[in-house]
Amino acid sequence: MGICQDRVVIVTGAGGGLGAAHSRVFAAEGASVVVNDINEAAARAVADEVVAGGGKAEVSTCDITDYEDSQNAVKQALDTFGDLHVVVNNAGINRDRMFASMTEAEWDSIMAVHLKGHFCIVSHAVHYWRDQYKAGKAVAARIINTTSGAGLQGSIGQSNYAAAKAGIAALTLNQAAELGRYGITANAIAPAARTGMTTAVKSMARRMAKPEDGSFDYWAPENVSSLVVWLGSVEAATITGRIFEAEGGKISIAAGWRTTEGVDKGARWKPSEVGSAVEQLLSKEVPAQKVYGS
To answer: Which of 148, 155, 159, 233 is catalytic?
Structure first.
């Protein structure tokens, strides 16, 4: 049996790329998967592939940015498979633009798909899990969010995307702190893989192309899926509030903001004195990673 035997999973944005890979690997590890995507044909193709391989999958086309409609994904999981254990928030879009040229529509569409999209289905799932807990049932639920290096350190030309992904990282920390009492863990991944979003850029498409010699496919999305599926399993019960990075065969943890020792005068600083305090702080700081593209 696989590590997710009899687990029920919703994967958003599962019609291609990382979401499709997550669905396939979850199914290969014994999970029943609700393949969610607004592109019904793409979602159907993934679900059919899972079923053809002996797995269990159903298609969901609910809109993750619509709170009422998103509840249908949870209802479908319960009606079809009898339970729900994992929600993988994977769906995303790009609307790249330098900040000075960005439109309100480009900002709003990113916030809707990424931030609101990370809220809607999970909100309904949490209500279900909390009710189970209050009814005295054992809960082993998992929220797995998708952030990005852009959100962790910034990315030139992606102010909207970076802000949304940073918000997702912070949301994950809050979910972990608030929901652990109900048997729910929350973690996030920052993946680097070959997807429709990354290969839309010709230079990245060439760099991330599948090797023709049969060697290790460094950018294959399944490399990331292994981590996601483990986080969705019962084996990851003690892991929560973490931001993982996954690229090729490497898994790492992104260390968040940390308060430094600081400089304490013990009294109010005069405005003219603050500069020297900041100089002391900067002389001791560990420099942050550079913003992508800088």
So the answer is: 148
